[in-house]
User: Fold these one by one.
Assistant:
Number 1:
Amino acid sequence: MFVGHYSAALAAKAAEPRAPLWALVAGCQLLDIGWSGLIMAGVEKMKVDPSLLGSPLDLYFMPYTHSLPASLAWAVGATILARLILRLPWRAAVFIGLAVFSHWILDLLVHRPDLALGFGGPKVGFGLWNYPLPEMALELGLVAMAGGAWIAKRKDLGMAAWPAVAFLAFLTAIQMISSMGAMGEDVVQDGAMALAVYLVATAVAWAVDRGRARAA
């Protein structure tokens, strides 16, 4: 799951407009942002296996970001930080936390069994990655549905639709580009490239949302 994660951010923005879009966009990929840093530091582990169907990533050790308890901890931490640092209402802060946890739920659909239910023990994953076309259709479909809800909410608030449409086009473009590219053998470089994409998406979300009207 890549661009499909952003559907959670868009759905949350439609449900709670007071939550900053950039925070939701960063939040829905927060586990992967942490994963990128830990991969580059050598704390979590992955390798590229071209023999695998669909995604070539063998994510064999990532307990600190993608285990179930870790993802819950990241979500709770994000909620608290959104409340204390961004000074958001609790409802908006909770939606940011939900966006963070949505990452694990959506990964469950597409990952092979590499998501640990604890810091050890059994791992789960439904493996939709093994079916690239249905997997991509799911991701783009989720983004389209959540994006439609967000556009409708913007219209209800008297805001222009075109920034939302532009952001959806941006997400579609990076999904298409990522589907054509292949991961290299340099784990540090792969982690850095992934991190750069997440940060660029966050910056674009900030630009889209900076002129937003505050909901009452």
Note: The chain has nine helices and four strands.
Number 2:
Amino acid sequence: MDRTSPNPTTLESLHALAEHVVAAALYAETGRIGLRVGPGGFSTPPFADDRRTVGVDHVDLVVASAEGTRRAHLSTLGAAAQLAGVAPGAPASVYTPATVCDPDAPLDIDPVSARAVAQWHALGDDALRRWAAVLDPAAPAHSTLWPEHFDVAIEVDGVTYGASPGDDDIAEPYLYVGTPADRRSSDRFWNAPFGAACSWEAISDAPDALRFFQSGHWHLKE
């Protein structure tokens, strides 16, 4: 996995695309906002009779359907929204966006940073799927990439397990276990205000990430 830390401008541009274009397209059709990790980035689930999806593949916006695939280099939110067939802007009635919606501002996306974000999301998604199957083999929780946080996560029994590419609190990509303070044991595993975090520098692959999620589960109060 590429260990080049995503630069802040790339991370903000990708986050803005998730909030103001990809989630906006999904919400306009379905009233939902939950995205999924996809090859090279993230996308909507299929949301129309023609199995249409809208997503980001590294530095391109991709609109796919039964009729074929349209792809364009990411330049501005406005251009991306036009290809997606939606007005740019997060569904404000659902969440307060963390990024600014400026349809004409150039998107600054470095290909190396975009690849690092995509790889981290993919690693987290893989580990979360494995962990969900351990927690409930009969009905595992589905991992979701939430546009407002730009992280991929599952929630089981009031505990959130996830992978973030970095945010205002922790700049580097990290894994986390989020749970209320009264659910946590009194030990040093819980190293963040929201629960526990683990930098990507300590994680080599999905099995490593799975072990961190397992540790979070073990450190909950009985």
Note: The longest strand covers residues 60-65.
